Amino acid sequence: EMSMHDIESMCWIGGLHDYYLVSYDAIAGGAFSTVYTAIAYNEEEDDWTGEEVVVKRIPLEEDDDILEVYRELSFFRDCEHENIVKYHGAYIEDDYCWIVMEHCLIGSL
Questions:
Q1: Which DSSP helix (H) or strand (E) runs through 72?
Q2: 108 has a pLDDT exceeding 60
Q3: Distances (CA, A) of 34 to 5, 38, 61, 88, 92
Q4: At a CB cut-off of 8 Å and minimum separation 6, what does 42 contact?
Q5: What's the Rg (C-alpha) of the chain?
Q6: Collapsing DSSP states into helix, strand and coil, what is residue 106?
Q7: How far apart are CA 8 and CA 73, in angstroms?
Q8: What CA–CA distance (Å, rounded) separates 27 from 5?
Q9: CA 106, CA 96: separation in Å to the nearest integer?
């Protein structure tokens, strides 16, 4: 059985907003999650001019949520291929898992 500890071992705890400036205008969403665009912090320029990414926000309220998040994180962590969206990492913050991914401009995935 999955636990919150399993999710935490795959994520950074807090800090999302130190590295990504999230626009809270949702670009996609459903029963399981909401997706936003974000801009990465550019350490070389010391400003918010980095890569545009998407951030998928998933609530961690129920055991079913934890299992779904674990499956999704496992997939992205273990799969690196040119035809699959690039995974940048995941954070746990405010009772949500925030999954940061490459921004693809060609519809939903």
A1: helix 63-78
A2: no
A3: 23, 13, 15, 17, 15
A4: 48, 49, 50
A5: 14
A6: coil
A7: 11
A8: 30
A9: 26
Cα–Cα nearest to 99, from 42, 22, 43, 44 = 22
Strand partners, 91: 12, 98
When mean pLDDT is compared across 24-33, 41-50, 91-100, the lowest value belongs to: 41-50
Strands (E), the chain: 12-13, 20-22, 28-29, 34-40, 52-59, 87-93, 96-102
Q: Is the pLDDT of residue 109 over 70?
A: no
Query: pLDDT tens digit string along 47-105?
Result: 888 889 999 999 988 777 888 889 889 988 888 778 788 899 999 998 899 999 988 76
38 near 23, Cβ under 8 Å?
yes
Is the predicted pLDDT of residue 17 greater than 80, yes or no? Answer: yes
Residue type, 21: L
In which band, very low, low, confident or very high, does the pLDDT at 107 lie, cut at 50, 70 and 90?
low
